[in-house]
C-alpha cells in the first residue's frame, strides 16, 4: 500500500525543494501539501474543504514551525491531543536552529528535527526508518 506524507509548508520555494529532496531520496509516495496550520488541521481532521478526504492518516508529517494563522507548535500540540492523530510520526523541517525551538519540539513528541536546507542523506535515512516501520493508519 502506498504511504501518504503530509507536507505543511507555507513557503513555495521550501516546499518545492522538499518535494525534490523526497524524490531524490527515492520515495515513491503520495505527498499532500498544505500551506498553513489551519489548513493542516482541517486536512488531518477531515473538515472544511477536506471533509470528503478518505485517504486515511499520513504515514509521516513534515512540519514547518513558522506558519501563518496557526504556527507549527500549535499544530503539533493539536496533533498530540487527538487520539486519531497522536501516533503519527512528525518531522520538523525548520530554518530555526535555536535550542528553544528544538527543545519545545521534542517536548511535543516529534520524531526528528531537521534544519533547512535539508541534508539529503540524513533526511533520506531518517524518513526511510520511519516509513519502513509505520503501518498505514486509517481514520
Provide the fold topology.
Elements: E1 4-8, H1 12-24, E2 30-34, H2 37-44, E3 60-63, H3 72-81, E4 90-94, H4 99-107, E5 112-115, H5 120-133
Parallel strand pairs: 1-2, 1-3, 3-4, 4-5
Could you give the order of the helices and strands?
EHEHEHEHEH
Shape: globular
**Structural category:** alpha/beta
Kindly give the count of domains.
Answer: 1
CATH class annotation: Alpha Beta
Strand content: 15-25%
CATH H-level superfamily? Response regulator
> Could you say what the CATH topology is called?
Rossmann fold
Care to count the β-strands?
5
Mean pLDDT: 90
Give the biggest beta sheet: 5 strands, parallel
| Contiguous runs where pLDDT drops below 50 for at least 5 residues | none
Helix content, binned percent: 25-40%
CATH architecture: 3-Layer(aba) Sandwich
**Kindly, what is the distance between the CA atoms of the first and last residues, rounded to a whole number of angstroms?**
16 Å
Strand order of the largest sheet: 2-1-3-4-5
Number of helices: 5
Radius of gyration, taken over Cα atoms and rounded to an integer in Å: 14 Å
Amino acid at each position: 500500500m502506498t504511504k501518504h506524507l503530509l507536507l505543511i509548508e507555507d513557503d513555495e520555494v521550501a516546499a518545492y525543494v522538499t518535494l525534490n529532496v523526497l524524490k531524490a531520496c527515492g520515495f515513491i509516495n503520495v505527498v499532500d501539501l498544505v500551506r498553513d496550520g489551519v489548513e493542516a488541521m482541517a486536512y488531518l481532521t477531515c473538515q472544511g474543504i477536506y471533509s470528503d478526504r478518505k485517504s486515511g492518516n499520513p504515514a509521516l508529517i513534515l512540519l514547518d514551525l513558522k506558519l501563518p494563522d496557526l504556527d507549527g507548535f500549535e499544530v503539533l500540540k493539536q496533533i498530540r491531543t487527538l487520539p486519531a492523530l497522536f501516533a503519527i510520526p512528525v518531522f520538523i523541517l525548520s530554518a530555526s536552529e535555536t535550542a528553544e525551538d528544538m527543545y519545545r519540539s521534542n517536548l511535543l513528541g516529534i520524531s526528528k528535527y531537521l534544519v533547512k536546507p535539508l541534508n539529503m542523506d540524513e533526511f533520506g535515512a531518517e524518513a526511510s526508518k520511519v516509513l519502513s516501520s509505520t503501518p498505514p493508519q486509517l481514520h
